[in-house]
Amino acid sequence: MRMVSASVIVVLAFMAAGTPSRAKGAEETTRRVYISAVDSAGAQVTDLTAADIAVKEDGKDRPVAGLEPATAPMQVAILVDDAGLGAFQVGVSQFLQRSLGRGQFAITLLNPQASPIVDFTDDVAALKGALGRLGNRGRLQADGDQMLDAIGRAAKTLQQRKAERAVILALTIAGGQPQSIEPRDVLTAVRSSGAMLNVVHVIGADLGMAMGDGPKQSGGRIEQAGTADAITTALIKIATSLQQQYLLTYTLPDGVTPAERLTVSTARKGITLTAPTRIATK
């Protein structure tokens, strides 16, 4: 027994000496967000590297694990609030032409109630049919609650679909001033879904909190336009920005609870980043 015990002790000692310690960072949490960048002339910047990017979560520096071109298919919920005038038909057509092949698209038309006219699809015929329903339908009374409700519902749908690269594109003439819907609830739904809220609005629209703050918080864009041509230009800008996005990954140390506040910056001069400032903690 003494010989067996001695042998066991020797083996255990050998195993203890030879077992590698857990690699540093083995329990790190990796987080992912989508960003884009433009130069001082407004052109997309496509040569950023991880070394160019700094990340702070809740004011604390976080290591950047990687930066690469975004390749995951998009799921884009397009919400059209045109007061019946058909003002966004051409712009949506141009957006789709530049985005087809990069994901699936759903279109909801407000009449003023939100009416889905095509579910998420990449079928050209189905999308073309939906475009045909975005023309002039006669003047309708706009309703800010309907638009906010449509944004919230789109966010929840994208979350249910577990969309890895979720986008909400809200197009509005009237804006999104609520009567009964709480804007903070809408922003929470967008944040929980991980969707990037992009807004194109006619000059003078009263966006309110959800549509005014949502793009910045979620890493989307906000564009205003005064003419039909300007609306199309704005939608092309958003399509181009989505095409040239980066997937940014960064890490949290073992035991650190994810936080909501995010700051993404670059030391490269003349470059402006579009990145979320609020992200889900789960």
Please describe what this structure looks like.
The N and C termini lie far apart (54 Å). The longest helix is centred in the first third of the chain and has 17 residues, at 2-18. Mean pLDDT is 90; it is low at 1-25. This protein folds into two domains: 8-70 and 245-274, Sandwich (Immunoglobulin-like), CATH 2.60.40; 74-243, von Willebrand factor, type A domain (Rossmann fold), CATH 3.40.50. With 282 residues, the chain is of the alpha/beta class. It has seven helices and 13 strands. It is globular and about 55 Å long.
Would you kindly provide a brief summary of this structure?
With 282 residues, this protein is of the alpha/beta class. The chain has helices at 2-18, 89-99, 124-131, 144-160, 183-193, 208-218, 228-243, and strands spanning 29-38, 53-57, 60-62, 64-69, 74-81, 103-110, 114-121, 166-172, 196-202, 222-225, 246-252, 262-266, 272-274.
**Which blocks of ≥5 consecutive residues have pLDDT under 50?**
1-25
Query: What's the number of helices?
Result: 7
CATH C-level class of the largest domain is Alpha Beta
Overall mean confidence score, pLDDT: 90
Broad structural category: alpha/beta
- The dominant shape is globular
Compile the SSE list and pairings.
Elements: H1 2-18, E1 29-38, E2 53-57, E3 60-62, E4 64-69, E5 74-81, H2 89-99, E6 103-110, E7 114-121, H3 124-131, H4 144-160, E8 166-172, H5 183-193, E9 196-202, H6 208-218, E10 222-225, H7 228-243, E11 246-252, E12 262-266, E13 272-274
Parallel strand pairs: 5-6, 5-8, 8-9, 9-10
Antiparallel strand pairs: 1-11, 1-13, 2-3, 2-12, 4-11, 6-7
